[in-house]
Amino acid sequence: MTTGLPNMTPFPFVDIHGTPRERGRQYGAAAADRTRKSVEVYARQLRDLGYDWAQIRGFVADFLPKMDDFAPELIEEMRGIAEGAELDFEAVALINCRTEVMQLAHRRKGLAEDDPDGCTGAVIMGSASADGQLIHGQNWDWRAECAETAIVLRVRREDGPDVLTFTEAGGLARNGLNSVGTAITANYLESDRDYKLGVGVPLPLIRRKALEQEHFALSMRIVATTAKSASNNMILSNAGGFAIDFECAPDETFPLYPEDGLLVHANHWRSSVALAKLKEAGIPSSPESYYRDWRVQQHLQAKRGQLTAEDMKAAFFDDFGAPYAVCRPPRPSSRANLSATVAMVIMRPAEGIMEVAPLPALNRTFTTYSLDLSRRTKNAA
């Protein structure tokens, strides 16, 4: 059981460049301690379920062919991370398919995973902001100990746009933005189709691949059409003035669009088309999702047309219903892990800027990370 709170120092910044293998080695060496902690978070839980390392490697091996077919260059980067951090490749791969592996491991024991990724995401369109610029952000709700395993990663690429992403150490991407003005956040969803239609591409690879695209339309294609093992919600935006929410089942995607210049999503299905075709399965673990997105929407709606990044922060700091709140203070889960809003991430894609605060229910200090937009590729969306 986790009893102490992680520290609230800024997330380390890791800057990498070169070939995929070179980038991975730089990443692994720079974030070795945190990457090892990332592995241990999930390996420990799997061991507690009765799985040994050979069985854990077997779970990971099931995903490797799909991962390699989808993005062989990202497999190379993961191999580099493993070399730089002096870990088995399968350990780094575990971080990048941990959502899928943890769910499958629990299901094979007849158990429910009681700590699904939470998250409340939002986009303020230019028409609703004070300066006409789009703002995109998220609260990431997960295990409190991951405040000590997350980093901010900048990938300087010669074969496409640069990427800035907040992620668990060893991971390829959680949420982030790129140098052509595209941003992405992701929220947990669950349906009755999950893990019944075969192995799909793990979510961190989809998010990273979406951020590597030269054009926003191609980022949307990656998210909307890539087969997944389970449901997930991903919000994509572009600084040029567009945002879309994709409620993704393993084999089908349902789009939602901004209303009155705002787009907000938590952890329940909202598309009427989706709800006519599948069964909502996530509410037992996230019942407060029903008011989290509503609360954020109300905060933002009140100042529509004059909204700033500070207003998005204020909405995400909402503590109605605490500890089951938009901004979740550390609280025990049903298996005695500490669950919390691990980080608040606020992005201004037009400026290539990301602000991040660890454990925002306890800490309101943000650190600013940025891309060098002078390296922006010519064919921006």
Shape estimate: globular
Q: So how many helices?
A: 11
Q: Biggest sheet, open or closed, and with what strands and sense? A: 8 strands, mixed
Could you tell me the radius of gyration in angstroms?
Answer: 19 Å
Would you tell me the structural class of the helices and strands?
alpha+beta
What separation lies between the terminal Cα atoms? 47 Å
Low-pLDDT segments: 377-381
Order of strands across the widest beta sheet?
A: 1-4-5-6-7-8-9-10
According to DSSP, the number of beta strands is 15
What oligomeric state do these chains adopt? single chain
Helix content: 25-40%
Strand content: 15-25%
What is the mean pLDDT? 94
- The string of secondary-structure elements, in order, is EHHHHHHEEEEEEHHEEEEHHHEEEE
